[in-house]
Amino acid sequence: MRTKEQYRYPTALTIAGSDSCGGAGIQADLKTFSALGVYGMSAITSITAQNTLGVRGIQPILPEILKGQIDAVFEDFTIDAVKTGMLYNKAAIQVVAAALDQYRPKWIIVDPVMISTSGSRLLQDDAIEAMVDLLFPRTTLITPNIPEAEFLTGIQIHSIKDMDEAAQLLFAKGCQAVLIKGGHLEGEQRIDRLYQLNQPAVTFQAETVQTVNTHGTGCTLSSAIAASLALGHSLTESVRLAKEYVQKGLLAGADVTAGHGHGPMNHLFDPKPLQKRVIES
């Protein structure tokens, strides 16, 4: 006799900083998860005082409180995907690396957040080496933009050929897959390149959206990738779907005034209902 099926939500956990103006960080991640039909959870690494004009202050969360947040979530839920954003310091990275080893989630997306859209520093110097050594080898995908990829590899990136070279250098640091975001390259097209070990690179192109509302687009892209993975899509398809989501969100919010600086995109232009999946016995 067949028993009645039980369900759960597809889930994603963001481990990142809080953005008081709501356009980036934890707030953008949770909006993205919800918009794509995924149940989102969070572990906050830092509290920031910021708005669309810039970051005014950062207060890191105590390592034991960060660990407590992560433990509480993993001990109670099945987590399909994890994304990290602003980790800020070495202590937070050590906590996250230990948690990834303990709980071993299937999908781990690391957005190596270093500088905010407004130009504020979001990662301490001693944290950079820790991120490379402790997180890159444990990660499904890292998602650096051009300045971040340049800093991590030590080379200048002005072309797709340079992006290809940077990806190989990042593979040498232990990465399994790299999405280099080409939004800082010249041209009318935004070109991103996805690199996976022993596979051909995949290029994603999109028209440049004329808008100042770009606050939190990197956070949103990485959380959209995590959400799509949680829904069961492949890595390549998840990147494609995430790119499409961000492009539509930028277009939907392009002509809206939100704050006096780099405003947020429209995360909720077409929200999906929360999905369900059968609990496997």
Describe, in short, the structure shown:
By secondary structure, the protein is α/β, with parallel strands linked by helices. It has helices at residues 25-35, 63-74, 90-103, 125-135, 146-153, 160-171, 217-230, 235-252, and strands at 7-8, 11-19, 39-51, 54-60, 81-84, 107-110, 141-142, 177-181, 189-196, 202-207, 277-278.
Tell me the β content: 15-25%
Order of helices and strands: EEHEEHEHEHEHHEEEHHE
Low-pLDDT residue spans = none
Give a quick account of the main beta sheet: strands, pairing sense, barrel closure.
Answer: 6 strands, mixed
Biggest sheet strand line-up? 4-3-2-5-6-7
Number of helices: 8
Gap between N and C termini? 15 Å
Structural class: alpha/beta
Mean pLDDT score: 94
The whole-angstrom Rg is 18 Å
Shape: globular
Please state the oligomeric state of the protein chains shown.
single chain
Number of beta-strand segments:
11
Domain Pyridoxamine kinase/Phosphomethylpyrimidine kinase: 19-266
Organism: Parabacteroides faecalis
GO molecular function: hydroxymethylpyrimidine kinase activity; phosphomethylpyrimidine kinase activity
Keywords: Kinase, Transferase
